[in-house]
Amino acid sequence: MDTSNSSSSSLYNIPHLAEDGGNWITYKERVFTAIGAHNLRRYVDGRATLPAPLALDPTSNLPVVPGPTGNVAATVADIEAQEDLIDEFYHKDSLVKQQLFSMISDHVLLQVQSLDNSSMIWKEICKIHEGKSDLVKIDIH
User: Taxonomically, which superkingdom (predicted)?
Assistant: First the structure.
């Protein structure tokens, strides 16, 4: 599936995470598999980083790029290429956020929605449910 043109409500249809975390272990594996299938796992594990905007020349306040003898004025193509990288990061990060948000309860969503990126959201979801899965294991035994 091409993630750049995905119109479905989620990357893959994964069962919702139970409020009590009872399905945490299988949910977590399904999330990693679905997100990994779309080459987006680095957005969950924190390896994806937002590209920095171009530096600005201190005197002209115009964008610059490194040249052979120092910074040179950025071309329109340089600016567009950097903006495309930034847009691609936000697009892919939003795909992962959408996938995560579609599978959690409103209660958990309210706890994580203000976090900056999908990696931080995933870490918080893990923090909320890691301990719950241990309690479920004890209950099963």
Answer: Eukaryota
